[in-house]
Amino acid sequence: MIKQVNLLISGRVQGVFYRASAAENARSLKLVGFARNLPDGKVEIVAQGEEAYIARLVKWCHSGPPGAQVDDVAITVEEPQQNFVTFSVR
């Protein structure tokens, strides 16, 4: 069953290749959606796919790439709102 998760990641997550690394990880898990920087310093990730693969992405988000320091990952699970065809960095 396809699920959607919205993640807000806070900490030192901008300028450390967090979005690019998240996108690479998500693509390897066959997830679609996007990652983008927010003006408040957080990274937002919207991911759609199989629940087990989303869980693996969420686990990765708690540590992120080398150089990141994740303070919090706020998670909202929703029904898919739109159809993404790939995982992009915005």
Automatic annotation (TrEMBL):
Q: Which UniProt keywords apply?
A: Hydrolase
Identify the InterPro entries for this entry: Acylphosphatase, Acylphosphatase-like_dom, Acylphosphatase-like_dom_sf, Acylphosphatase_CS
EC nos: 3.6.1.7
Instruction: Enumerate the Pfam families for this protein.
Output: Acylphosphatase
Q: Name the Gene3D superfamilies for this protein.
A: 3.30.70.100
Q: Which domain of life is it from?
A: Bacteria
Q: Which family does it belong to?
A: Belongs to the acylphosphatase family.
Task: Kindly provide the name given to this protein in its UniProt entry.
Answer: acylphosphatase
User: Which organism does this record belong to?
Assistant: Candidatus Danuiimicrobium aquiferis
